[in-house]
Amino acid sequence: MSENLIICIGRQYGSGGHEIGVGVSKALGIPCYDKDILKQAAKESGIVEELFEKADEKPTSSLLYSLSMGAAGASTVFPSYNDYLTNDKLFMFQSKTIKDFAAKSSCVIIGRCADYILRGCPHMLSVFVHAPMELRIQRISHLKNIDEDAARSLIKKTDKSRANYYSFYADSDWGSAETYDLSLNSGKLGVSESIEILCGAAEHLKNKK
């Protein structure tokens, strides 16, 4: 069993979870993996990255296979992938990539059920980052350059997708306090303080090795 320190961050959309994860990785001098997981899984599986992106943190569906067959040249490029181009199969490839990253070195992994996938790791810290809706609306409206109504709609849609994805694969309640080791309100604490708290928790866990 790996002795690496792994910090898995679940996050509400617009809560700053990615920014916090990157900040923790820089403070601790360890890698942070987010979209990198999709790139590596695509590379190792030989499946185009677009398919991983379309299925990213979405519950299982047959739509992915329909998409792939509708793409120009997909039936030629992937003639024998009929049984593989499903979200479930992509989740398996992605899970392997997450386990490989965790085995290689201490790291921060954002989203994608990493806490469930790595649940047997003794030095894994699972964290959920949340924030009040109005603060998230302001953040997404600014980042995406959209009005507040559009931001609110995007937040609700993304959160619902992430919750369904997590519930489907992890069979646990996404965002529920008892699911995680630590829950942080980034709206109250701020990004910098959240990073500091997480680093402190990580150091405490590391010292228990």
Stretches where pLDDT is under 50 for at least 5 consecutive residues are 62-84
Q: Helicity level, as a percent range?
A: 55-70%
From the alpha-carbon coordinates, what is the Rg to the nearest angstrom? 18 Å
State the domain count: 1
What is the makeup of the main sheet? 5 strands, parallel
If helices are DSSP runs of H or I spanning 4 or more residues, what is the number of helices?
A: 11
Order of helices and strands: EHEHHHHHEHEHHEHH
Q: How confident is the prediction overall: mean pLDDT?
A: 87
N-C termini distance = 12 Å
Structural class: alpha/beta
The share of residues in extended strands comes to 5-15%
CATH topology: Rossmann fold
By DSSP, the count of extended strands is 5
Strand order of the largest sheet: 2-3-1-4-5
Under the CATH scheme, the architecture is: 3-Layer(aba) Sandwich
- The CATH homology group name: P-loop containing nucleotide triphosphate hydrolases
CATH class: Alpha Beta
Shape: globular
Task: Please describe what this structure looks like.
It is globular, with a radius of gyration of 18 Å. It has 209 residues and is an alpha/beta fold. The protein has one domain (6-45, 95-207): Rossmann fold (3-Layer(aba) Sandwich). The chain has a five-stranded parallel β-sheet with strand order 2-3-1-4-5, with helices on both faces. It has helices spanning 17-28, 36-45, 49-55, 63-70, 74-77, 87-104, 114-117, 133-144, 148-170, 186-189, 191-207; strands at 6-11, 32-33, 107-110, 124-130, 182-185. The relative contact order is 0.21.
